Amino acid sequence: MKKYFIPLVFLLFSCSTMETQKEIRYYGYDFRPYTAKGFLFTTEGYDGQYESIASFAAVMYPEVKQIEDQSVLGNTRWAAGEVHAGEVIDSMYARATRMGANAIIRFELRDIQKLNGKIIMEGLQASGFAIKRK
Question: What is the pTM of this model?
Answer without folding.
Answer: 0.73
